[in-house]
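Audit log entry. Action: structure prediction of a protein-small molecule complex. Ligand: flavin-adenine dinucleotide. The ligand was supplied as SMILES and no pocket hint was given, so placement is left entirely to the predictor. Protonation state taken as written. Sequence taken verbatim from the request; no trimming, no tag removal. Recorded inputs:
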Amino acid sequence: MEREDADVIVVGAGLTGLTAAFQLTLRGLTVEVLESHLHAGGVIGTHRHAVEGGDALYEVGPNSGMDTTPLINSLLGDLGIRDQRIDAQAAAAKRYVLRGGQLRAVPSSLFGFIRTPLFSAGAKLRLLREPFIAARKYAGAPEESVGSFVRRRLGPEVLDYAVEPFVGGVYAGDADLLSLPAAFPRLAEWERDYGGLVRGAIFGARQRRREAALKGERAKTAAPSFNFKGGMQTLIDALARHLPRLVCSARVLSVQRDTGGGFAVEIERRGERLVRRARAVVLAVPAFEAAPLVAPLGQAGEYAARALEGIHYPPVATVSVLYHRKDVSHPLDGFGFLAPKVEDPPVLGTLFVSSMFAQRAPAGVVVLTSFVGGRRNAQAALAPDEHIAADVVRSNAHLLGTGAPMFSAVRRWPRAIPQYDLGHLQRLAAVVALETQAPGLTLCGNWRGGVSVADCIKAGHEQADLVMARLASAR
Ligand SMILES: Cc1cc2nc3c(=O)[nH]c(=O)nc-3n(C[C@H](O)[C@H](O)[C@H](O)COP(=O)(O)OP(=O)(O)OC[C@H]3O[C@@H](n4cnc5c(N)ncnc54)[C@H](O)[C@@H]3O)c2cc1C
């Protein structure tokens, strides 16, 4: 081995792994990060396209994070990129949902709710009944899906035109397959502890405020969306710059217990097989990549591997299209729109990128990014690029009144976002059992603790604390 052994090896240089590695470095450990791709970042990546007057920026993965935790700003401060952060513009506050072939603004006030055509009068009355619907008995009851919960408490129309499109936007998922306690644990808690959602929102508010104040956290509804002047890539590049032992094009093939009590990690790099050693290993890779790495680690490893293989990742394609502003008739006065499954749309949703954040494109040019596929329409994300782009361009023309595009780019993620399906919590329990059996080995990533950018940053911090505690107890 050419290099000294590390204290910790982090496998996977996506946002979770990079954050964990950086936090461990800050705590004085020697950390080696092994990444199979040519570049760090995982699903995060900002691209540029030259147009008249400068570059247009578009993201192939996340377009923003939500500032729900103070860990985000503290991370940006430690990386020296706080001044690079930009928040969503006030003009982007409006959200649209597709209904009846038209974009309807999501109401933001009670008056707006009463008047909105997004929900029928029947659905609005059904919503008012929520506080009077008896709570489910949780003790011994089977796990419930998000779809079943929302249908039961809020009615089918709220599921179709509010929750299902939201679930499509966050998970590219299907509400009838997602586990309520795994994907939206707070909603289950409100019903269990307070008897319903309205009661939970009112009576649980004081306790939530107290808990949030303790951690300095903000509710998702109150948290600003952020990106960076140079796009989300800024965060990845800054993390990578601070990790002197980040090795790309290094695919980890196996992780084994070493004779000295640590771990031997076998990698393939440019056709060569090498072994790295460390006292602790953090697997920060997608669940389906972690499965073969843990399978050889005894019976607990086999169980965990089977559980990890069971986490489904549907495909998603992101399609960014540039237009001359004069060729778009919609005001683009918002964040974008979500498209409910019942409307049978070609996209999961579309972001008005150049309205969300400043400096995305020179004046006179707009950037729209659409998401195609997900669980509801997996085949669409696997079609040839030109078909995917053509569908999105047609959808934009129909819904936003766009003319001919200046440029379009498709990025396909064949296994995009982990689904917190029914049974997810049991799957995680198998992973916890493995971690208990193999002290020094920990697993993290967006399949655990939340899929959002903010969740991954939080998970990276928590992972670093966990590794420090494990190393201290092993002394
Ligand atoms: C299209 C899309 C849009 C999204 N939009 C948003 C958004 O707008 N807002 C938001 O908050 N979240 C969004 N998300 C979610 C969020 O971006 C991701 O959950 C997060 O970036 C995942 O980070 P990660 O580090 O957990 O995983 P990944 O990014 O998947 O990183 C894992 C890394 O491990 C590496 N790896 C795998 N196997 C090996 C191996 N054997 N050896 C070495 N390395 C390996 C991979 O190459 C990869 O770099 C989006 C996700 C996608 C896919």
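Audit: result stored. The pocket of flavin-adenine dinucleotide is lined by residues 11-17, 34-37, 42-44, 61-65, 251-252, 284-286, 289, 316, 318, 413, 416-417, 445-446, 451-453, 456 (CB under 6 Å). The mean pLDDT is 95.
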